[in-house]
Each structure stands twice: as structure tokens, then as C-alpha cells.
Amino acid sequence: MTSLNGRNLTSLSGRVAIVTGGGTGIGLMIAQGLAANGAKVYITGRRSDVLQRVADAWDKTIGGEIVPMPMDVTRKESIMDAKRIFQQREGKLHILVNNAGQEGPRSLFLSDASAPQRRDAETLGQALFDNESFEGWADLYSINTFSIFFMTTAFLGLLEQGSKDEPNWSSSVINVTSISGLIKVAQDHFAYNSAKAAASHLTKLLSTEITLKGFSVRVNAIAPGVYASEMTLDIIKPEDTDIVAKGLLPVPARRAGSVEEMAGTAVYLASKAGGYVNGQEIAIDGGFMAVNPSVL
Length: 296
Known about the structure:
Keywords: NADP, Oxidoreductase. This protein has helices spanning 6-10, 25-36, 48-57, 76-89, 121-131, 134-154, 156-162, 190-212, 241-245, 259-270, 288-291; strands spanning 16-20, 40-44, 65-68, 95-98, 171-176, 217-224, 281-284. With 296 residues, the protein is an alpha/beta fold. Strand 2, helix 3 (48-57) and strand 3 form a beta-alpha-beta unit.
């Protein structure tokens, strides 16, 4: 059956996507994957020059196109300005990838057994209290968690409009969370891990509420393990994988994830191949959660 051909299953021809934080790292991997399979992909971020360089470098003969659309996902005004521009140009949206994020406050002494801050409970507690701030946590949650809610709600009407294009197919929201939100060790950053955990639960809340209200928009999440990004300086040597992951046990795959593995997961969720998936979170982590304490 031709409908089971891989190209038909994952084709995104005629689809329009938005990828927040699409100019670098995981967002760029996903944007290129969607475009390579035929989608027109708007990439957003606060640095217009970065977005433009990505768009200019993209080879349109591969498949779809990549279009820069500057936006700050932590500001409602910026989101609505971008929405108005997008609505005028496209009138509907098929794929929204909420990828924008940052790492935030770190307390590196937490995983260092020889650190003087770990001398006793009083010393450790005070060190953590002094090293981090309410402002730092709030900034991190704004981009890693809050932006998912505000982007999804702002574009919900356009997503529902996109679902009308084809019977038995629905628009897709893909939230990029992290295995850091699913494991039970802090990896030196309580704020990041708890914000990603909140993003995981927000994914399920949005999926359930949108579905219960009768709208044909699926909401899922991808929880990456160690992948090259600006957070990991874009290059991860095989011997550095476990240093980046900071688990109790090493990453079984003994390497970082690849562009193909990240892009392929996003394409699956956005295409007909994943059209029956709703409210789920897919961890792509090289087996990291299989050997480290997690909530799953």
C-alpha cells in the first residue's frame, strides 16, 4: 500500500510550522527536519541575525523553506505581534514546536563530593540559599515553562484552523521538555529540572483540556537527553557525555543524540505517522532513564 510508504507517512508537504528557539541547537535540528520533509517553517528567537543566517543557509531544494520571525516568547506583546504577522501571511498553523529554553541557575558544588559547601546540612542548605535567587528562578520558568502556555493559547485558534485541512489529521503542538524534568537527581540545577518537570505536566494539562473542549489539536512532548545545543556548547565529545548528563550512572549509549534522532522524533509526532498520539512524552535519551532514578 502506497499509504504505508515512508515518504507518505512522514511527508509534511503543505504544512506550516513554528519552532521557537529555532535558530540553534535542538530547535534548529527540529526546524531543519520539518523543512526537509516539506514543511514551511518559521523559526523564532530574540536574535534576528541568528535567525536570518539560518534561513539564508537553508537549501530550499531539499524540501520546504525556513523563514525567520523574531519574537520574545517571554513577552505577551511580542507573541501577539508575531501572531498578527503570521496570521496575515498564513491564516492557519499545523505544527507548533515550543522549544525555546535556557539552563538557568546552577550550583556546581552540589555534585562535587569534595566541595566545602557539602560539609554538613547547615552549610549545604545555606550555600544553596545564597547561590540562587527568586529572580533567577522566575526568569528561567518564564522561558522554559510559562512560554509553553502562552504560545499554545495564543496560536490555538490557528492550530484548530490547520486541523481542517485533511480528514483524520490534526494539528500538533510539540513541547521540548527534558529528561532533567523526569529524573530524581538535580544535576546541579534545581530550577531547570523543576521547570522542565512543570513543562511535562503542562503538556498533559493542555492535551487533556484542549481535547475535552472538543478541539482537534494534539499536544505531546519530546524529552531529550544529551544533545548538542548552546547549553552544551554545541559540541559534545563522546567522553564528555556523562559529564554533561550528570547522572548517578553513565549514559548507556555512550554518546550524545544525533540530529537525525531528534528531527525524526519531531517529524513522527507532526506527521501522519504519529497522528494517533496525544498527551504523551517521548524520552530520547540513549537509555539514561533506564539506569537512573526517574519518575517514569
